[in-house]
Fold this protein.
Amino acid sequence: MILADVHNHTLISHGEASAAQMYEAARRLGLAWYGFSEHSPLPPGYACPLYHGDLAGDFPGYVDDVLALRELFHLPGAPRVLLGMELDWIPSRMPYMRELAARWPFDYVIGGLHFLGMLAVGSPKNWGRGESEEERYRRFAAYYREMTAMVRSGLMNIVAHPDFIKVRCWESFHAWLAMPGSLDLIRETLTAMRETGVALEVSSAGLRKDFAEPYPAPPIMRLAAELGVDISFGSDAHATADVAFGFDRLAAYARSFGYAQSVIFVDRKPRFLPFWSLTGGAHAVQRG
């Protein structure tokens, strides 16, 4: 059983439920830890049309709500609450990012790579409008070079959905993964993660997409296991029904690469949690 879901959102960004409602869903599911990781407010010049209202204005209220939940729930069997944030990596706004990461008492910060320059990676309008496969491949390579810089910035504890760029072009991404040199580039990113103690998110959000594949894809997951990169589990939930979504499948997926423990961060310090098979037997972690 996976004990912690560290990637979740609320209605102050583009979720559908309050922090209290999301927490109640985690409690019903028997999680031991529940980490809130609301999207960071975006700097001037950047926007997400999916966000409700004023994220910058509402974010302090989100922090207050999560900290209040942390104080209220110390009953036996209730999940422990973690305060996190999914920080958009925008390297041209380094002072802005550093100030956000330091402003509140986060247990952890998840690095979200949603932009390449001004290009919104997840927007369907940026894919399928006549760009060549070569152009897509250049974007994939730039994505991992940017991810390496993000990992080495010292701002993040976890890398969110580490192949999110496949979300609108799954087949092209897998074709690129099979090309010579692509996994070498990803190896550099994963090596940076191992060296800096940044965890790789294994996310069930991809299971809710048409391609029905976790983040990251098997070739990346295999390489991470060989290199000894730590993993964290997240659902990227935006509704109560998504909390810990597909975690039985996610546990089996991680175990198939030799993992038996995940990492969470409490006050920015790592804490390792074992997970088990459905029969209760633990599997040894294999290190490359």
User: Anything to note?
Assistant: The longest helix spans residues 133-152.
